[in-house]
Amino acid sequence: MHEIEMLYRRWLFEVWAGDFAVADHILAPDFVGHWPGFDVHGPAGAVEQVRRSHEYFDDVRTTLDAGPVVGDGMVAAHWTFHGSYRGGIPGADAAPGTPASLVGSDVFRAADGRLAEYWVVSDAAGMMRQLSAGADPSGSG
Asked: How far apart are CA 19 and CA 66, in angstroms?
């Protein structure tokens, strides 16, 4: 297995599973993560973003749906985030315990044996539909 693929798998299956200490080993000290609408810096910034995601869900797990594809110091993959809604997302009307999933794609640039830069695209609108955000109580849409 390619070194960059191993780093990515640790990101997806260890950091996202809640083993936040792993981030210090796989992310560069000057890591930059580009989430839609904002950036995070350093392993601590990435961990805080993952931790925020965990605040709204129990039973968090991720699946690797495609990839990872490795080439030219980059790795890309498609994943699904699964969890049971805990509550608290503004605009979400679903009851606690509602299962939800989020699909997305990652691209990382690696440098000096660590993941250095990150871009993520995910279907947040699809997850919000699952959580009944703004649902019409009549069921007509």
From this structure: 23
Q: How many helices (H) and strands (E) does the chain have?
A: 4, 6
Q: What is the pTM of this model?
A: 0.88
Cα–Cα distances in Å, from 137 out to 46, 86, 91, 93, 94?
37, 21, 14, 10, 12
- Mean pLDDT (whole number) for 101-128: 96
Q: Determine the Cα–Cα distance for residues 38 and 35; give it in Å rounded to an integer.
A: 5
pLDDT at 135 over 70: no
Q: What values do phi and psi take at 21, rounded to 5?
A: -65, -25
Write the burial class of residue 27 (CB in 10 Å: 0-12 exposed, 13-18 middle, 19+ buried). Answer: buried
In one letter, which amino acid is 39? D
The amino acid at 139: G
